[in-house]
Specification:
Helix content is about 55%, strand content about 15%. The chain is of the alpha+beta class. The radius of gyration is 57 Å and the shape is rod-shaped. About 20% of the residues are buried. The structure holds adenosine-5'-triphosphate and magnesium ion.
């Protein structure tokens, strides 16, 4: 791996994921802990409160009876016993403002001693005949949480002669809260540790394909279009990997296409130079001979001039074909568009073709199913196109054969030109429309291999199709289709 590939640990996907997760976990744990503690505290407090409230009411009633019966001396023992049995602190306070306050003997705490403490308000409430309560976690008297309730004690004439306070220590609450806090902290640590492992596995699952794709992208950037991610997954990462693989395939295809194009261009130049070299060499040789004056006989000299003229003609034809081809291949070039009747085109063709056909005693047979075949196109180009095919048909046929031309019209115009010639090998069928692709047969000595390339371009420019079928030794058939033109009258 390159040095710059290394991502700082805090920037790693894994770390970011883990941080998010840990924060979420902590927040959840703290929230749950707080809610749990609050609920626990509330229920514990309420339970205890209900219990001591009824106890306080009972004690208050008993105290009133003691006052009624004037059994003041029994109170201390009574309270002591109750405190021992219930684990409570019981305070009895005499009401200093009462006409007949509770007897001092019955009192555990003096009002004056409690003045200034937080208990005074619930004592006052009880003196005003209103039972009250108070909860605290810690105060000047107790270090632990306590619940305190107050209840009035009635004396002579149902006057509030004093108050009873029940103080319950709930230090168990603190212990429960503390141990549950511990439990929560421990479980958070365990959860963080377990999730750390899970997230490492998960992050590796994520980051491994990402760095693989990065590697592939870098390979592609450096021109290695054979590079593939090799990742197969059913998630978004898999989709991304597939896309990267498609990209690499497309790049590879483009690369191959570009190389082919380059090669074609090179081949084309080589072909053109080659085709021009032979006639130029011939002309030069003849000219030199004539200039030297070695050959003087008029017959011979005329023969030389004839050869030179024919070489010039073939060069002219080659250059003309090339110019036509380059014009046709130019996407901006558009042909003349006028209504053309193919019957007229073939009349014209027959005039030039018959002369060549006669030399080999070849019959040209035309079969048609309509008096006219109108289409939109360029008369001269269409003539040239069918002439190329007919010229080949005659050229590649033995003597005394027939060339069949068939015209038919339905929703399309179909023209077929079939010969009984030498045929084309199946393997070569795909190449015959290529520029400079030609047979090396003796009868093709003057062929340049541009004919079919031109014919195909003309057909394409007319929005038509051109196809070929051939059987070696049986014959060849070229099939054209064009859209007919509906004449309006
Ligand atoms: P020219 O440029 O003079 O036409 P050419 O005839 O060799 O040269 P094309 O017309 O493009 O070139 O044809 C290409 C090749 O396809 C021919 O050389 C020949 O091998 C093959 N071919 C074309 N038509 C026929 C046919 N009717 N029968 C057999 N072979 C054919
Ligand atoms: Mg030809």
């Amino acid at each position: 791996m390159h040095k710059e590939n290394r991502v700082h640990v805090f920037n790693r996907l894994f770390f970011k994921l883990y941080l998010n997760y840990a924060v979420m976990l902590l927040v959840t744990a703290v929230l749950i802990g707080l809610i749990f503690m609050k609920l626990y505290e509330d229920t514990t407090m309420n339970d205890n409160l209900d219990k001591i409230k009824s106890q306080a009411a009972g004690i208050s009633k008993r105290m009133s009876e003691f006052i009624q019966d004037e059994k003041y001396d029994e109170v201390t023992d009574y309270i002591k016993d109750l405190e021992d049995i219930n684990g409570l602190d019981i305070w009895t306070i005499s009401n200093p403002l009462a006409v007949f306050p509770m007897d001092e003997e019955m009192e555990t705490n003096a009002y004056a001693d409690l003045e200034g403490t937080d208990y005074i308000s619930i004592i006052d409430s009880a003196f005003h005949n209103i039972p009250d309560k108070r909860t605290t976690y810690k105060d000047e008297l107790y270090d632990v949480p306590t619940i305190t309730v107050s209840e009035p004690i009635y004396g002579i004439n149902r006057e509030v002669a004093g108050a009873v306070l029940l103080v319950l220590e709930v230090d168990g609450l603190n212990k429960v809260i503390q141990s549950s806090l511990q439990l929560i902290v421990i479980s958070i640590i365990v959860a963080l540790a377990i999730s750390f492992i899970i997230i490492i596995v998960f992050a590796t699952e994520l980051s491994l394909p990402i760095s693989r794709m990065r590697g592939t992208a870098l390979e592609l950037a450096s021109g290695n279009y054979h590079s593939k991610t090799g990742i197969k997954r059913n998630d978004e990462l898999g989709d991304l990997a597939k896309t990267v693989d498609i990209l690499s395939e497309k790049l590879l295809e483009n690369d191959i296409q570009r190389k082919n194009l380059d090669q074609m261009r090179l081949d084309f130049f080589a072909n053109v130079s080659h085709e021009l070299r032979t006639p130029i060499a011939v002309i030069r040789a003849y000219t030199e001979t004539l200039v030297d004056g070695v050959v003087k006989e008029t017959d011979k000299v005329n023969q030389y001039y004839d050869r030179m003229l024919s070489e010039c003609k073939s060069m002219e034809r080659l250059v003309g074909d090339l110019m036509l081809l380059s014009k046709m291949q130019n996407p901006d070039f558009s042909i003349e568009k006028e209504p053309v009747d193919l019957i007229q085109v073939f009349h014209n063709i027959m005039r030039s073709a018959s002369a060549i056909a006669e030399k080999k005693n070849i019959t040209i047979q035309v079969i048609k199913d309509s008096p006219d075949y109108w289409m939109i196109g360029d008369y001269e180009r269409l003539r040239q196109m069918f002439m190329i095919i007919l010229d080949n048909a005659i050229k590649f046929s033995d003597e005394n054969r027939t060339v069949h031309i068939n015209l038919s019209k339905s929703d399309k115009i179909v023209v077929t030109i079939r010969d009984e010639g030498i045929g084309i090998e199946q393997a070569d069928l795909g190449n015959i429309f290529e520029k400079f692709y030609k047979s090396n047969l003796r009868q093709n000595a003057s062929g340049t291999g541009l004919g079919l390339a031109i014919a195909k371009q003309i057909s394409l420019k007319h929005g038509g199709t051109i196809e070929v079928k051939s059987t070696l030794g049986v014959g060849t058939e070229f099939i054209f289709t064009f859209l007919p033109y509906q004449m309006e009258f």
